[in-house]
Amino acid sequence: MPQTLVPQGLTTGHAPFVEEARDRGELYISQVYELYSKENHEVWRQLYQRIRPRWERYANDHFLRGIQALNLPSDRIPRLSEINLKLQPLTGFQAKAVSGYVPGFLFFDCLRRREFPTTITIRPADKMDYLPEPDIFHDTAGHVPMHTERAFADTLVRFGDCAHTAVEMTAHLRDPKERARRLTNIIRAMSRFFWFTVEFGLMRGPHGTCAYGSGLLSSYGELEHAIESDEVGRYPLQIEWVINQGAEIDHYQPLLFIVDSFEHLFDLVDQLERWMRAGKLNNVAPGLPEIPERDLRSFMDAAESV
Prior knowledge:
- The chain has helices at 16-23, 38-58, 61-70, 80-91, 104-112, 136-143, 150-170, 176-199, 214-217, 220-228, 239-242, 262-277, 293-304; strands spanning 94-98, 115-119, 202-205, 208-211, 233-236, 255-259.
- The chain is an alpha/beta fold.
- It has one domain (16-304): Aromatic amino acid hydroxylase (Phenylalanine Hydroxylase).
- The strands form 2 sheets. Strands 4-3-6-5 form a 4-stranded mixed beta sheet. Strands 1-2 form a two-stranded parallel ribbon.
- Helix 5 links the parallel strand 1 (94-98) and strand 2 (115-119).
């Protein structure tokens, strides 16, 4: 007789299936849907129902069309396989289940292959408003609907190209300390650019400023704050500012940047890569975000294998 899986929950920080996979060194995993508990689905339902009116008011039109194209469920956690059946024909992207943090180069390389690393756990009920690490609501309700939009999806691929350019531009350096120094600066510049665009980006819309960044679109409180609060500085995106601007994760963002369109954002990523090739990312302002050793090591290993 086959063993029946008993739901034990896939709650962030309390998910044995995911934690055991991580302990075994397995980064890419399956979404074992039967492991979700009733409480997990109820958290998704509450998160979705609460934020939906704010999406209608503050999200960009491409995101709203993405929600509709994916037929994202409102009452249960989505199956990634169902999402991918609808997403792949639109832009070639796929949501790829992971056991946790994906080191920097591997993350960008996934984007280059049109794969989006997706966490399968969901936040606990007592942390509905804030969780420092991503969960499946942030990833599939915040990020993935944007992947249905061709120009935005192509921009993510260009981010992946930038990671390969960083490796290419440092692989020839014989001094490992200098390679590490340059890569640390480049990774910091890329992380800041990604943070202020893909995670917390604003865009000009037909009815005023709207949100396209997933960190905003998955946060009930910050989505409204980003658009309405007089405490937030909102400025047209300039690369030289963004790559030297510290990014903090433990409070609402006081400074946000606006692009004109996804075609504009694509052009800015092109420009970022040109600046990288010209050496303009080799010495950016120090400060947040700190670059974890595993992120730097992932780029170093890629450079050493060239």
